[in-house]
Amino acid sequence: MSERPGPTGAAPGEHRDERGPVLRKGVGVPTSGWFDPRGRALGGFAFAANRVTGLGLVFYLYLHLGVLSLLLRGEGSWSDFLRIATSWAFLSLDVLLILGILYHGLNGIRVALVGSGIVADRQRALWWSLGVIGTIALVVSASHIYGSR
Amino acid sequence: MSTMGTRRFRVYRYKRGDPGWRFDLFVVPVGARTTVLEALRWVQRHLDGTLALRHSCLHASCGTCGVQVNGREALACVTPVEDLGATITVEPLANIPVLTDLVVDMREFVDRFPDEIAITRRSEPLPGAEPPEGIDAYERFEDCIECGLCLSACPVSATSDGYFGPAALAAAQRLLEEPRGVDPERILGWADDPLGAWRCHAAFECTAACPSNVRPAERIMALRGALGRRAG
Q: For the ranges A19-28, A56-65, B42-51, B222-231, which has the lowest average pLDDT?
């Protein structure tokens, strides 16, 4: 692409020696524009939320490995952790985790269906219908999580 | 304009050679049907003749007056100020280099389009007309008015200037729909690029911003579908 001259005889970016400033949304750092809520439509929020939940799940993965490493410190250490893990606050974090998993997974299905061209023009309908499924699943999960206490 | 009140306009300013950009504040009298473009032209005539902006048709068909109004892409000529609040921020389009003030360098937008894009349609020149030499350098993108709003709204374009962008990819899909002698395989080969159809992350902001109902995101998705069938 960048080697193909366009109608002006120049490749994209070829004018850069004379370039003026390029505005970016957000706080100026390119990716911060993902989270600039001004004027965003449903697809934009879905896109930003997918990144937030993705980063959250990666953080959780490492946190989970750290927690499991408590087993190396013996039974007492693990029992202490379990006391914390059954508190309301900790269980609420579990519900938050389920929310992240459901959103990221279901939105992934939506993006796959839309992005592969199978249902290219149904992104909003998919978001809402999968959102209903996700909400039901979250409520059921939360009732199980809090009910286990 | 019949005045009903005033609005404060925060307008992005940049001139070649300036060390940086800034916002200038203008208080503009507005009426019930004043548009952003009319307000900016009032600023030009009465407050600051050096304010540069681009416009032409005044009815959303030329695509030249695209700007960001309160952070959202819009054609200034059809955007009423009435519901925009007491202070209205006007900036040039994002992801395209600024030439001066609200004018961006559309060369970088146009250069993204595939070479095979339809030129003036065969049916357009009048019978007996002799099109000037070099007319084929001017491109026509059908329902797209080449305003650049989609490129500004696209969060992926913000991360890579090499990304072909929504308008160019939508134009490619349009060619697949009606090739007019263009080899579809060449179009698919052009779009089958890490910075082409596969770079899109389906945020659909381009479709939300498009004032001409091109629905670029849906066309990119359809383009991907065609690429997938081609691979299969």
A: A19-28
Instruction: List chain A residues with CB under 8 Å of B207.
Output: 41, 43
Distance from the Cα of B166 to chain A's closest Cα (Å) equals 14
Neighbouring C-alpha atoms within 13 Å toward the C-beta of B26? 23
Structure ipTM over 0.85, yes or no: no
User: Domain B5-104, what fold?
Assistant: Ubiquitin-like (UB roll) (3.10.20)
pTM over 0.80: yes
Cα gap B28→B43, rounded to integer Å? 7
Domain A40-147 annotated CATH 1.20.1300.10: yes
A56 touches chain B (CB under 8 A): no
Q: To the nearest whole angstrom, how far is the Cα of B54 from the nearest Cα of chain A?
A: 16
**Whole-angstrom Cα distance, residue B176 to residue B182?**
8
Residue window 97-136, chain A: list those with CB within 8 Å of chain B.
111, 114-118, 120-121, 123
CATH 1.10.1060.10 corresponds to the domain B107-231: yes
Which residues of chain B are in CATH 3.10.20.30 domains? Answer: 5-104
Which pair of structure tokens corresponds to residue B211? 């004032």
* Alpha carbon of B67: minimum distance to chain A alpha carbons (Å): 11
Cα–Cα–Cα angle for B33, B39, B41, nearest 5°?
Answer: 125
Bridge-based pairing state of the strands B66-69 and B87-91: antiparallel
